[in-house]
Every structure is written in structure tokens, then in C-alpha cells.
Amino acid sequence: MGIADRKEREKLEMKRLIMEASMRMFLEVGYEKTSIRNIAEKIEYSPATIYLYYKDKDELLYDLQAQAFEQLFETFKEKATGRSPMKKLEQIAKAYVQFGLEKPDLYDLMFIIRSPMKKLEKEDGTDAWDNGDNCFNFLLDIIQQGIDQKLLRFKDKLVAALSIWSMVHGLVSLHVRCRMKVMNMEEDGVINAIDTTIDEYLKMIKI
Amino acid sequence: MGIADRKEREKLEMKRLIMEASMRMFLEVGYEKTSIRNIAEKIEYSPATIYLYYKDKDELLYDLQAQAFEQLFETFKEKATGRSPMKKLEQIAKAYVQFGLEKPDLYDLMFIIRSPMKKLEKEDGTDAWDNGDNCFNFLLDIIQQGIDQKLLRFKDKLVAALSIWSMVHGLVSLHVRCRMKVMNMEEDGVINAIDTTIDEYLKMIKI
DNA sequence: AAACTTAATGAACAGTGTTCAGTAATCCAA
DNA sequence: TTGGATTACTGAACACTGTTCATTAAGTTT
């Protein structure tokens, strides 16, 4: 049926339109001001229309999150050019932090905000969170190489991933949420301290 | 003037009443359901009344945050009983993580949520964030001892603090925000991995 | 052309933080 | 003790938010 096909295409086209407007809004005015009503106004549809394509706002944000992870994944592939696993690790660690600091609102969506994870909070097990898979597996792969080549202190792959991820996420999220104010430093000093902290950490996890 | 004094006392008493209701509400039903209206209903006053004692919700949350940090500070002092700085470091690191996992809503307020830090986002410099001072200085003190006694790898006190803090905050915040779902483990396994990660990290920062 | 199906919406609901005019209670001087 | 000033409090409103649903408009099928 050609008509059904066209309808299908139109449906996808509409979703794309919504996603595009949401992403632009996210990057331009931030998460807090990206409301269903604002998105609807941007694409010149009624707010109710959005609910014909997304069950609720969380579902929309979930899709948006997937796109954000796609962006991060691309960045990873771009930056991880080094030969040794340790070099690659350094490159993606720094890429991660840079991404977080440059696109704080996307970072929010991916790693901080409650929103698109609400269904997953009560581990019902039916469906897991798979948005971050790309990026996480990319990290795991490099770690595996590091362990295989006996360059990494860690024995357990997952513990290694958790350690590295927690460190960089800790740095980014404390910074974007202004908690580093407690250190009473100027902005430059803080950025410097973050860089040094990463370097020190990367030195420590080497054998 | 005795009357002015009494008025002052009554004003403070009212603030205390509001804070108590807010804290109870925070712990019982969480941040998301702690609205000005709900608090007002709990203390049997009009919502508008709260605005006679707090300029806005952020100011209220700021006070609440201060109380939360007081709680964490007490926990630190309680748990840091070890003799060596490294033992104390381990004790407060684990106390921090335990606090975060047991009281996720308070942890939110202290380290994750944007809310009470909004004024500080555009570093106007007029007033800094001093709620976390107690806890941060407690950490700095132990680190200083560790460096003095040449037990810690770090040279810079602040870098050390940032590294340790970022690690534990990373672990807690990724967990309370369900991002560890990406690892596809059961809850027990995750908690286990967190513990191991802390242990591994503490080993690494020792000389 | 009539009947059926689908897409879109206006209006409403329940919730949020916040403001402000107006009321009620208290205090102080005459 | 009474009248006027001060203070404490609140109801109602405003401008938002996400979400639902009956109704309208458009497109498709018979």
C-alpha cells in the first residue's frame, strides 16, 4: 500500500521535525525552557499534536538523549586516534569532559537529569536503558585492550569502566552544577585543576 | 525593647517551623513533591505567608541545603575515627557514598540539583557558596595530613580534594540517577562494583 | 456523493512559583 | 480606653507547566 507507506513517512517526518526543534531549543535556551508548549510553537503546531507522536515528554527526551549519545559517540571515534590503548583512553576522557563543559544542557540530559529515566528507576527489568550503549562499549573496548596489554592496573573490566567514568563524570557534573564554588577559585583555576586531576588520575591507573 | 526581641524570636520560630516541615517533606516524599503549597498546607498557613520569611523557593532550599551539609558534617566527625589520615580518608569516603545512597533526596539538594545555586551560576562574586565549607575543610584537613606524612601521591591539596570528591560524587550521582543501568548488572552487583571501585581508588592514591 | 478514518486542535484540568490588594490582628501613644 | 499606625496574614490572581479529550477538519474508501 503506497498510501500507508506515505503515511508512515509523514509520521517519521513529523517526529524528525519535533526532534529537530527540540534539539535546537535545548542547545539555544536550555533544558528548563524547552517546554512542550514552546516546541509546539516553534514548529507551528498545537501542543496536543506532539502527544500524537510521543506518549509523553519523557519519551521525547529519551529520543533526544539518544541523539545526544550519538553526538558523543561520533566525538569519541573522531578523537580516539592514538595507537596505544592508554593514549586512546586519555583522548576519550578529555573528549568526554570537553563535551560536558561545552554542551552542558546535552550533558544534563545524558547523565544528570532524572527525566528520561523515570521508567527505569524501579528496575522492572522489562526494558533496559540502551541509549548509552554505543559510548559505553567504546570505552569497554579500549579498557579491554589496556588490560590485555597489561597497561592498566585494573583486573575487572567493569570496575575499570566505572572508575574512569565516575571520575570524569564527577568532574563535569560538579562543575556544571557550580559545586566547585566551594573551592573559592577563579574559573581559570578550576578548569586548570580539572585538567590536572585527569592527568593525575590517568597516571595512577597505569601500571 | 522586649517586644522587638519577642518578634525576632517569633520570626525565627516561624522559619524553624517552615524548615522542619520542608525537611520532613523532603525525606518523606522527595524533592519533586516538596512544593511551596504542600509545605504551607503542612504547617497550616497560606502559601503567601512563606514568602514573608523567604524571598523565594531557592532561598528556602539554600537553608535546607545548609542543614543537609550539617548532617553530613556530623556523619564525617562520627565516622572519621581512624588514626592514620589514609584510614580517615577511607572512612569519610565511604561515609559520603553511604550518605548519598541512603538519602538520595538530600544528596540531590547538596550536589546535583540546580536550584539553590542559581544566583551563583553567573559568578558575580558578591557572595560565594559557603554551605559546603564545613565538609570540604574537613576533607582538606585530612588531605593535608596525608601529604605532610607523605602518604598521599598528590602534591596539590586542592587537586587531591577534587580528585577524591569527583570520584565519590561520580559514583553516587551516576547511581542515584540510574545511569549505571548501562552496565546491565543487578542491583547487588552494582553496589559491589561501587565498593570495589572505591577500594581500588584508595589504593591508587597511596604512595 | 456518502461513509468512514485519521490528523489536528481549543479548551480544560491539575499542578507549579510568585505577587499583591485587602483584611485582621496587634501595638503604641494620646 | 480609644483611635490610629504597624504588622501578619491570606484569597485571588497571573503566568507558567504537562497532559487529556471532545470536537472539528481533512483525507480516504466505498
Question: Would you write up a description of this structure?
Answer:
2 copies of one chain form a homodimer. Chain A is mainly α and 207 residues long. Chain A is 73% helix and 0% strand. The model of chain A has no long low-confidence stretch (mean pLDDT 93). Chain A has helices spanning 2-29, 36-42, 47-53, 57-79, 85-102, 104-112, 118-121, 133-148, 157-176, 187-205. Chain A has 2 domains: 1-54, Homeodomain-like (Arc Repressor Mutant, subunit A), CATH 1.10.10; 67-205, Tetracycline Repressor, domain 2 (Orthogonal Bundle). Chains A and B meet through α9 and α10 of A and α9 and α10 of B. Chain A binds a DNA duplex (30 and 30 nucleotides) through residues 3, 7, 35-37, 45-49, 51-52, 56-57.
